[in-house]
Amino acid sequence: MAAAPRPRLRLSRTTVAILLVCGAVAGGGRWYVSRAESAQVASAREAKSGSPFKVFATIQELMDSTVDPAADGVWDSVAVISTEAGVEKREPRTPEEWQEVRRHALTLLEAMNLVVMEGRHAAPPGAQPKLGELDPKQIDVLIRANKPSFAAFADDVRATTLEALAAIDKRDVKALVVAGGKIDQACEGCHVTFWYPESAAPR
Ligand code: HEC
């Protein structure tokens, strides 16, 4: 009695094995096709936009969320604060404090790559300029017409931030203060050209 079911069992095992192989081939084939398809879709999309990057934030939002906090992190790391209690000299002292300033400098450096990315608008739709500021739509036009100049201002921020980075790596507080002042001027250069040219007072 025990011998009778054995061939059936073997047969069904073979069937299962065949089915598994078929399934793997069919499934694998489908997987391959869908991978190829999605690669095609992705490359078509890239070809259309010419870039693998995707832009989400406007320049205004990038300034507010990334550029300004990073610059503040560099500037605020060194300060002389006078109070009734006396003069407090704030500067990075521990390795952790220097590391913190360094993070901000790196963020600022890389943020300039984001600022000059193709297709980024000045501000969200409906944003209202304040007195003396250009309308964001005008800023868009201005940037598009003067891309090299816009990029050069971002490069000024990079160059001055690299000076700050060198000062940070040398633990040189004085040099960091000097570089901080230069970063500020670099920011201002772009702002008086692209953001509020009418209110730019001659220096
Ligand atoms: C390459 C040009 C460029 C550089 C460099 C630049 N900015 Fe800006 N920034 C702009 C433009 C353009 C706007 C105005 C966007 C708008 O409101 O339409 C702006 C706006 C701002 C705002 C206002 C954001 C808000 O919420 O309204 C702040 C703050 C700011 N920038 C800080 C900085 C700081 C700090 C630096 C330097 C570390 C800097 N920016 C460097 C182009 C630049």
Automatic annotation (TrEMBL):
InterPro entries according to UniProt: Cyt_c/b562 (IPR010980)
Organism superkingdom: Bacteria
Record SUPFAM superfamilies: Cytochromes
Gene Ontology BP term (one): electron transport chain
Transmembrane portions of the chain: none
GO MF, one example: iron ion binding
Name the record gives this protein: Cytochrome C
Organism annotation: Nitrospirillum viridazoti CBAmc
